[in-house]
Amino acid sequence: MRVELLCTGDELVTGLITDTNSPWFEARLFELGVKVERILLVGDVRPDITHALLEVASRADVVLVSGGLGPTSDDFTLECAAAAAGVPLVEHPQVVEWLRARYAKLTIPLTPAVFRMARVPQGAEVVQNPMGSAPMVLLRLGRCQLFFVPGVPREYRALAEGEVLPRIRAALERDPERVYRAFRLLRTVGIPESQLDAKVSGLVARHPRVVFGFRTHAPENHLKLMATAPTQAEADSALAAAEAASREVLGTAIFGADDEEYAPALAKLLTRTGGTLSTAESCTGGLIAQQLTAVSGASNFFIGGAVTYSEKMKMAWAGVSPELLARHTAVSRETAIAMAEGVRVAVGTTHGISVTGYAGPTGGTAEDPVGTVYCALASEGRSTVCGRYSISGDRDRVRLFAASYALELLRQRLLAEPSSP
Predict the structure, then answer these.
(1) How many helical (H) and strand (E) elements, i.e. helices and strands, does the chain have?
(2) Phi-psi region of 387 (alpha: psi -120 to 50; beta: other; left: phi over 0)
(3) CA distances in angstroms from 124 to 76, 135, 141, 148, 183, listed in the order given
(4) Alpha-carbon distance 204 to 201, whole Å?
(5) Per the count of CB atoms within 10 A, which of 106, 164, 273, 390 is most buried?
(6) Contacts of 125 (CB under 8 A, 6+ apart)
(7) Which domain holds residue 100?
(8) What's the confidence (pLDDT) of residue 8?
(9) What pLDDT is recorded for position 418?
(10) H or E element: which one contains 217?
């Protein structure tokens, strides 16, 4: 089954809003083993929409069309659908009833424009919208089944979840040539995309039913594994074998799979080991604390953090001595170590993390240019470790990767520790 998406609206092609509907639908559709083949964005131009409808219908078995179903003058997607099908646009009596009932319930006056939403291509099927006014409209163009839904995300998702996906599922069950797919996303940190590719390249020939793909989502790099087979059991088995082989090659660089994010994965490790954490951040300005406290229940392991941006705060809150700062400067291995050890002792936590560096675009020295960052980890009963990192890019990128490097020092140490009883 070939599925394509057609999204209409000037706001999508002028940068006013981002299409969030398509990624959501792609993920839900892939759960059925179907991959979206193409997504087409078209502005509010009648000939362009009509041409796009004919184009996608000539290629696809199913097309989900979104946007342009409302009551305003720039909502003319169904006019274009009627033109593409060569049929008139007619007022559907059932939709008129739905509109009258909805507007009466909302105590909103009915205007002539409202009934624009009741005009559909002759012969089309309509489905009531549980979250809004404009109905879903079903229309066939040749062999292609088109679903027209509003672009408003909550309406789009309600109709896609309740009506579109079940119909696609039923069609798949009737398809004798159906293929089955299984997918896994392995999330890594600390490995550049090219190195990630090199590490798993030897696995490709050993797993012919699996496609190995890659995605960068800074500071992470992801390995995409997609298995295709004539049965779901075979697809699942092929995926499991490829995943096991990938995990063996990549080891602890993998922190999670599918929708598991870094901070929650780290939180699980801290909880498992019974550890607590405090932070002293300079160039990251509290970014580490922000990421950790986004996790529900963070107070169980994250005791607190200090943004020790100035030398005065490094001395007052992280216990860095003025002599050390005078000798080594605020951006140095020695200062990072003192910050991590100082904040851990001051707060009384199992672990202390620190970051100091030059995020740019100004600052830096000949020895430590812009992009140089020192991250340190102090742990109770363990030697303090510190890394020096050279990060390219703008200020935001330097800060993002600095926070990642600091947290990764902790994650790798936690992976080597026994679980708390």
Answers:
(1) 15, 17
(2) beta
(3) 16, 11, 11, 10, 35
(4) 6
(5) 164
(6) 137, 138, 139
(7) 3-174
(8) 97
(9) 72
(10) strand 210-217
pLDDT tens for residues 207-223?
A: 999 999 999 999 999 99
Chain centroid, CA 311 distance in Å: 37
Cα dihedral across residues 214, 217, 218, 220: positive or negative: negative
Domain boundary among 144, 174, 204: 174
In a domain, 421, yes or no: no
The H or E element spanning position 137 is strand 136-141
For 31-76, the pLDDT digits (tens) are 888 999 999 999 999 999 999 999 999 999 999 999 999 999 999 9
C-alpha separations of 300 from 268, 296, 319 in Å: 11, 9, 25
Strand partners, 227: 182, 210
pLDDT at 178 over 90: no
Contact present, 169 and 87 (Cβ < 8 Å): no
Whole-angstrom Cα distance, residue 207 to residue 192?
23
DSSP string of 356-404?
EE--SSS---SSS-TTEEEEEEEETTS--EEEEEE--S-HHHHHHHHHH
Distance from C-alpha of 329 to C-alpha of 407, rounded to nearest angstrom:
23
Residue 411, pLDDT above cutoff 80: yes
With respect to residue 235, please indicate whether it lies within any of the assigned structural domains: yes
Nearest CA among 247, 269, 291 for reference residue 351: 269
Mean pLDDT value across the chain: 96
For residue 240 the two structure tokens come to 């499991």
Report pLDDT for 33: 86
- Could you tell me if 295 and 377 lie in one domain? yes
Q: Do 128 and 166 belong together in one domain?
A: yes
Beta bridge partners of residue 4, listed in sequence order: 38, 63
Q: pLDDT: is 297 or 33 the higher one?
A: 297
Q: How many Å apart are CA 270 and CA 292, to the nearest integer?
A: 11
Of the chain, the percentage scoring pLDDT greater than 90 comes to: 95
Total domains in the chain come to 3
pLDDT tens, position by position, 223-258: 999 999 999 999 999 999 999 999 999 999 999 999
Task: Give pTM, 2 decimals.
Answer: 0.82
Co-location of 111 and 168 in the same domain: yes
Q: Say if residue 170 is in the same domain as residue 187.
A: no
